UniProtKB/TrEMBL annotation:
SUPFAM superfamilies in UniProt: S-adenosyl-L-methionine-dependent methyltransferases
The entry's keywords: Methyltransferase, Transferase
One BP annotation, GO: methylation
Full protein name: Class I SAM-dependent methyltransferase
Keyword Repeat: no
A molecular function (GO) term: methyltransferase activity
Keyword Transferase belongs to the record: yes
Amino acid sequence: MTTSTYVLGHDPYEIRRLTIQSQVFAGGTERILRAAGLGAGHSVLDIGTGAGDVAMMAAELTGVTGDVLGIDQSPAIVDVARERAGRTRHPHLRFQAASLDSFSASASFDLVVGRYVLVHQQDPAAFVRQAAKFVRPGGAILFIEPNVAELTRPDEALRETWSNPPVTLYDETAKQVVLGFSLAGVALSCGGRLVDVFQAAGLSEPSLLCEMPMAGPQSDFAELMTLTLRSLLPALEHHAAELAADIEIETLHTRLRNALLATRSQLRFADLVGAWTTVTG
Ligand SMILES: C[S@@+](CC[C@H](N)C(=O)[O-])C[C@H]1O[C@@H](n2cnc3c(N)ncnc32)[C@H](O)[C@@H]1O
């Protein structure tokens, strides 16, 4: 079973969050797509396309001689992707509302890709195994997933801060985000375990590339952290109501921005790990 509930929902705040997150991840994603071999004329399936950013980037890289299809289980987010892609005028880019389970295709693809989608699966290996069925023999499968290193470093002394010089409000917000995801059952350490996931899916050992987003205090990172926490509030309220009540989400972005500007801190967001391999058939 590879269908899942998307814990962050698809309200306007979440759609803005996905768009900002995509800008933050754009450079890293493009480098990973190129490293995985994506180029002109290729056919691509983007699973869990969300607001369509990976599909749109793939469409740029394949050019009009290629063919890109983005699918998502949420019809509402597929409408958003279609509307955004309409402005890019890519005739070879299409979107379809379908979960991976229900999807079928008449032809296989040169590249099957998913970004930030395995983290939401209860059984990532089953998801990868199912996705690999849509790769043509000799084509490639690629997943691009976050890795929050602190989850794999239980020793407090080894934990990194998210801001330098450290800003307590930014670091605490990041910790709440990590907590919210883990309470919602989302494994943010997924990007650090992709070798294992690919092997469990019956695939050969993947090539790996890690990108670490970093930016200054005037960047979108404060808004991205705030919007991520906002999308996670239902999960936090469900599991830790007192914690959620203390957050004061409506003023958080302003407070974060002021604190970061005062210290001129350098900021981190979750690392992005790409893992890809050839599917032999
Ligand atoms: C965090 S969003 C990522 C969106 C996009 N890939 C990006 O990186 O901007 C995850 C998306 O995967 C979709 N999704 C999750 N499980 C799915 C499944 N089994 N089949 C199709 N879409 C799925 C969700 O609806 C959601 O829109």
